[in-house]
Amino acid sequence: MGLSRRQREIAEFIIAYHQRHGYAPNQREIAEALGYQGVGGLHYQLGELKRLGYIEYKLNCPRTIRVLPKYAGDAAGASEPDSEEAVMVPVLGRIAAGTPILAQEKTGYSVPLPPLIVGHGDMFLLRVRGDSMLDAAILDGDWVVVRKQDHADTGQTVAALIENEATGESEATVKVLGYRAGRMWLDARNPNHGPIPGDEASVLGVVVAVLRSLKSTAPP
Fold first, then answer.
1. In the listed set 76, 111, 134, which residue is the last one of a domain according to the structure?
2. Do 60 and 92 belong to one domain?
3. Which of 9, 18, 47, 74 has the largest count of CB atoms under 10 Å?
4. Which domain holds residue 133?
């Protein structure tokens, strides 16, 4: 029996997440990314994928889900997934990967993105300025797709809003979320940039995809 479109989406998300973060997603993250209302339906699909030998995981042990080599072989010979309507993602302006900058307001237009790449949910698109996320392969001029949520796990790349007490304005930045000594930190991925205290910060969402134009990187 072949994999359903939904099962392929789950497996591809697990693979992409592991490549991006270096560890597996938890079930809540999978459910949110793929538009499940809860984890009940996801539990069934994960059980089927495990029974069919495509994934493995340890019960009651988060972040142990792993896609097995059998999936790559069967997916290569499978038919293309059913077409799915593109997700319209609004463009909100820019966000800093460096010193936080004021995020621009909504530009008034949206772009269609494939759900197989960005998943489902309430998302927005921001242009990155700065190089503090260089070692996470987020470059100056890239676009980040952010899934709206007010919470995130340690190690996730987030868009965060920081209150500037001097100006009274809110400034936005993209960083890796960390917790140390009971405090929240927004960590860079470039040794030239230090961490930012997150005491006055709030999470806007989690970065689920990075988009890049290759025009500026083409050889002369």
1. 76
2. no
3. 9
4. 87-212
- Looking at the annotation, which residues are catalytic? 132, 175
Q: Amino acid identity of 185?
A: W
Instruction: Render pLDDT for 137-188 as a digit per residue (tens, 0 to 9).
Output: 999 999 999 988 888 888 899 999 887 677 666 788 999 999 998 899 999 9
Identity of the amino acid at 46:
L
Q: Closest Cα partner for 206 from 21, 7, 80, 82?
A: 21
Determine whether 121 is exposed, middle or buried from the number of CB atoms within 10 Å of its CB (0-12, 13-18, 19+).
Answer: middle
In terms of Cα–Cα distance, which of 104, 103, 95 is closest to 132? Answer: 95
Phi, psi of 93 (to 5 degrees): 120, -125
Rounded Cα distance, 19 and 35, in Å: 21
Q: In the chain, what is the straight-line distance between the N-terminal and C-terminal CA atoms, in Å?
A: 49
Residue with tokens 């991006």: 20
